[in-house]
Amino acid sequence: xxxxxxxxxxxxxxxxxxxxxxxxxxxxxxxxxxxxxxxxxxxxxxxxxxxxxxxxxxxxxxxxxxxxxxxxxxxxxxxxxxxxxxxxxxxxxxxxxxxxxxxxxxxxxxxxxxxxxxxxxxxxxxxxxxxxxxxxxxxxxxxxxxxxxxxxxxxxxxxxxxxxxxxxxxxxxxxxxxxxxxxxxxxxxxxxxxxxxxxxxxxxxxxxxxxxxxxxxxxxxxxxxxxxxxxxxxxxxxxxxxxxxxxxxxxxxxxxxxxxxxxxxxxxxxxxxxxxxxxxxxxxxxxxxxxxxxxxxxxxxxxxxxxxxxxxxxxxxxxxxxxxxxxxxxxxxxxxxxxxxxxxxxxxxxxxxxxxxxxxxxxxxxxxxxxxxxxxx
Length: 377
Prior knowledge:
By secondary structure, this protein is an alpha/beta fold.
């Protein structure tokens, strides 16, 4: 196997480890390939959108198990219907992309290309579309086609639409790894950490009800910082998201949080479990590759417990109601960031440290937490 094929295979394996998501990895590719002044948005206007001054690109991604996108593909007509319903965009300055791994056998595409070349008119296109409407028994497709025919923005959409059959996303990601001058042997590590950084940002933005977008300038800044740390063999955190709450719902760190009212639904469990996972997995890496000594790790944990105890005693002394004491102790404790030797942990990972200790019943939130939970072990 050639070196490039081996690297592509390694990237493919990494993507499978991360849980292959065509949409996310296409976002990664567009970000890696971005230029000054561009903002790459995820799941806002559509799956992916790229914003420039007075211009926009909108991407609808179709990763299909079927082999083609045919004339009466429901996904195709639904996409046109959704684009026609968009609000607050300038259709004449927007390019619309359908990107798919499937073969595009839709004959309408050829007529659209003729329309774009001014070989035929929009009225000609509409007559073709009417034929499709008359040849389907699917009510949903018929509804989508009816809207496409009547939509006032459709002439601009079809004038600016492009179709891309893209099955080489892995190769494209590989081709963009050169940008930060990472040594060959560290490129997969860089990519893994880059994916982690993006998923961390997405996790934070989602929790804060913010749109997830990254500018070229932001990407280049954190990419350079990440590359410098990897070239210097310094620790870089990875991001781990909880996707299955069944593994955590009965653990003490969740039970303790539920008992003080800071966990009310599945989203809260996912958030705390993600914190917990990040601490455990990043600590495994820190210890495995000796980014910190055993003494530095022990000293850090002693400081963390001392810090918790100080907050716990203050809450116990100043607040009357037990639940309010526990909630205040939990919030104030988890707001503190942790250092291990020269490593400053991210806030998500720092929170996970306190949650891990609460799961081991080394710390707690309610005034009589030891008496309550240690009897349940």
